[in-house]
Design a protein that fits this description.
This protein has helices at residues 26-38, 71-82, 97-106, 119-130, 138-149, 165-175, 180-187, 191-205, 210-219, and strands at residues 18-22, 42-43, 61-68, 87-94, 110-113. By secondary structure, it is α/β, with parallel strands linked by helices. It folds into two domains: 18-145, Rossmann fold, CATH 3.40.50; 156-218, Arc Repressor Mutant, subunit A, CATH 1.10.10. The chain has a five-stranded parallel sheet. Helix 6 (165-175) packs across helix 8, helix 6 packs across helix 9 and helix 7 packs across helix 8. The two termini are 14 Å apart. Keywords: DNA-binding, Transcription, Transcription regulation. InterPro entries: Sig_transdc_resp-reg_C-effctor, Tscrpt_reg_LuxR_C, WalR-like. Residues 156-221 form the HTH luxR-type domain. This is Response regulator transcription factor. It comes from Kineosporia mesophila.
Length: 223
């Protein structure tokens, strides 16, 4: 099951997406760049280190590679997301349940397992992120559902439990892997309406993102 979508205006994209690669190991970095090139993805070299003129990074995707999530990686994810100009794709070796919640709370909604990161899979995930949508491995949704079920960083006590029928319809399609545009077409809504519905759910239930909203709806028996 793939999770689709991130709230907000979709960034400008081109047919050939542009990425920045963030990984300490230079051999691993070279391998990731090679994979991305085979997927027809353009890599922008070290834009943050330019002391003269930094390029416009709007619409680019920051690809972060990490075997295990540590404090430095989490800080890097926060920095990239808070920059506000880039979507972030995390290529992870492993993520424990609390780490997954931390990553999602940073605003990262695109994750690929490192052992599944073929050139085609990476290119697909990059294009999904560039559109402003989200993509999670199916097993991570199960982890998130478990975290919500145990009340880890879940909705605040006393939050309203009611979901309107159209909210349930949107969440069901999100859970099925549809992107914002596809949900709008399926329900005959505008894309803005879909985004507003999701934003309303997350604001009212004090949820962090679409994956969290789907897990909440599953736990409460709406899906």
């Amino acid at each position: 099951m793939q999770m689709a979508g991130q709230i907000g205006v979709a960034p400008r994209i081109t047919e050939q997406p542009t990425v920045t690669v963030h990984v300490a190991d230079q051999l691993l970095r070279a391998g990731v760049i090679s994979h991305l090139g085979r997927g027809d993805v353009q890599v922008l070299e070290n834009p943050d280190r330019s002391a003269v003129a930094r390029p416009d990074l709007s619409g680019t995707v920051a690809v972060v590679v990490s075997d295990r999530l540590d404090d430095l990686t989490l800080a890097e994810l926060k920095r990239l997301v808070r920059g506000g100009r880039r979507q972030v794709l995390l290529v992870a070796g492993q993520l424990r349940e609390p780490e997954l919640v931390s990553v999602l709370e940073c605003g990262v909604q695109n994750i690929v397992w490192r052992h599944q990161a073929s050139p085609q899979r990476l290119a697909q995930a990059v294009r999904t992120a560039a559109r402003g949508d989200g993509d999670l491995p199916p097993d991570l949704l199960g982890q998130l559902l478990g975290a919500v079920g145990r009340g880890q960083r879940g909705p605040r006590r006393g939050a309203p439990l009611y979901l309107a029928p159209r909210e349930v319809s949107v969440l069901r399609l999100v859970a099925d892997g549809l992107e914002t545009r596809q949900i709008a077409q399926e329900l005959s809504y505008s894309e803005r309406t879909v985004k507003n519905i999701l934003h309303g759910i997350m604001s009212r239930m004090h949820l962090t993102n679409r994956a969290h909203a789907v897990a909440y709806a599953l736990r409460e028996g709406y899906l």
